[in-house]
């Protein structure tokens, strides 16, 4: 949803300010890699977008209490809305902040770029998730790192070996972004390889 006149602007012009969700807008967050593709799919249908480089998240502002928001669930996508028993907050940068800051307006706030239509956003995120993360795994999986079951498994690797069988490696959303450079996992893999070598 776009507006002709800008109804709201960030009040703080000096630094990121934590503001309550549900007062002026709700928000939808996604991992930046998924958001990159969703933004390509949305094109000029995207409203204003906040990029948070510290946590690898991207946020779209959406209309408050959008009817369909509570009825859908997507892996690693979060809906930020006011809850009955607690408030939800979002760090909002000054309107003038660009990529020179860790948190900034990736798509600047403006009269024709304010709220994103939730239906357009759902379609774009759904396609982006399939393209970036692959098909959703069936059921819970164990995270390679914390070894706990996760309802939102992310496929991080398919381990190849000399045999026909291949192991699929999953991670929870927290550990998925650390997979390629995870020293603990690499050391554990080397240890397993050595143990297998000794047992032959």
Q: Specify the helix fraction band.
A: 10-25%
Report the count of strand segments: 11
SS content category: alpha+beta
- Total helix count? 4
* Topology as a string of helices (H) and strands (E): EEHEEEEEHEEEEHH
Secondary structure topology:
Blueprint: E1 17-20, E2 26-31, H1 32-42, E3 49-52, E4 57-62, E5 78-80, E6 89-92, E7 103-107, H2 118-133, E8 141-142, E9 149-150, E10 154-159, E11 167-171, H3 173-176, H4 183-199
Overall description:
The chain is of the alpha+beta class and 200 residues long. The protein contains 4 helices and 11 strands. It has a 5-stranded antiparallel β-sheet with strand order 5-2-4-3-7. Helix 1 packs across helix 2. The radius of gyration is 20 Å and the shape is globular. It starts with 16 loop residues before the first strand and ends with a helix. 30% of the residues are buried. The model has no long low-confidence stretch (mean pLDDT 81).
